[in-house]
Specification:
InterPro entries: GlpE_sulfurtransferase (IPR050229), Rhodanese-like_dom (IPR001763), Rhodanese-like_dom_sf (IPR036873). By secondary structure, this protein is α/β, with parallel strands linked by helices. The protein is 49% helix and 12% strand.
Length: 138
């Protein structure tokens, strides 16, 4: 007890960080629009899902999911005619870490796409899971 009284700030920090981890875990568990690399692979194989990579050109060329379509985040709305053709299929959006693709998924929903999913952790988690990466130009 004396330790806690003398180091209350460390105990408070531990409680706060634990609370943030718990909140984030619960938030992700309730988000059915995010997919792990394994879930994404299953959706690609079973439901013929389309992958849209929203990274910039140089990022895309450094390595991307095989058969991914490259539509940079800034060009999503400009290329809505291309996206219109994909509305009936599940769409998995990916970027470097999952942040841009989350925003891109929201944009795709606004454009009328119903089955849109975000790849959790982006291409980094894809590679970490041992999934294949292509460097071919499309």
């Amino acid at each position: 007890m004396e330790f806690l009284q003398q180091n209350w700030y460390w105990a408070a920090l531990a409680v706060a960080s634990g609370a943030f981890l718990l909140i984030e875990t619960l938030r992700q568990r309730g988000d059915s629009s995010s997919l792990s690399p394994v879930q994404a692979t299953l959706m690609i194989n079973r439901e013929d899902a389309v992958i849209i990579d929203v990274r910039e050109q140089n990022e895309f060329l450094s390595g991307h999911i095989p058969n991914a379509r490259h539509i940079p985040f800034a060009a999503l709305e400009k290329r809505s005619a291309e996206i219109e053709k994909l509305k009936q299929q599940p769409i998995i959006v990916c970027c470097a870490s999952g942040a841009r693709s989350n925003a891109a998924a929201a944009t795709l929903r606004k454009l009328g796409c119903d089955k849109v999913f975000n790849l959790q952790g982006g291409i980094a988690s894809w590679q970490q899971a041992g999934q294949p990466v292509s460097r071919k130009r499309k």
